Amino acid sequence: MANHFSALKRVRQTERRTVVNRARRSRLRHQIRAMRRLLDQKDTAAAQAAVPATFSVVDRAAKWGIIKQNTAARYKSRLVLRLKGLTGTAAA
């Protein structure tokens, strides 16, 4: 266990950040899961409506360092490709 005051403070900060990051990662996963469900159900209108909210959550997670920028780009790309596959036209 840490003995210096600065190390003790760093432990407290890390515990707080861990809680915040866990909530943000959970929100990201839930949003992506909801989007994938809509795509699986072939609900095109609802999926297109969910794209901006999903991209927003993914971009913010990348900005905060929850996921890397390339991971965010990959998530978005794959979701859009699946959506385009449903509609047959350019979407989003």
Textual characterization of the structure:
- The chain has 92 residues and is an all-alpha fold.
- It has one domain (5-87): Methane Monooxygenase Hydroxylase, Chain G, domain 1.
- It is 83% helix and 0% strand.
- The chain has three helices and no strands.
- The model has no long low-confidence stretch (mean pLDDT 93).
Outline of this structure?
The protein has 92 residues and is mostly helical.
Radius of gyration: 18 Å
Q: Unreliable segments (pLDDT under 50, ≥5 consecutive)? A: none
Largest sheet: none
Task: Give, in order, the helices and strands.
Answer: HHH
Overall shape: elongated
CATH H-level superfamily title: Ribosomal protein S20
Estimate the helix proportion, in percent. over 70%
Question: Beta-strand percentage?
Answer: under 5%
CATH architectural grouping:
Up-down Bundle
The average pLDDT score comes to 93
Number of domains: 1
The CATH topology is given as Methane Monooxygenase Hydroxylase, Chain G, domain 1
Number of helices, counting only DSSP H or I runs of 4 residues or more: 3
Termini, distance in Å?
A: 51 Å
Number of strands: 0
By helix and strand content, what is the structural category? Answer: mainly alpha
CATH class: Mainly Alpha
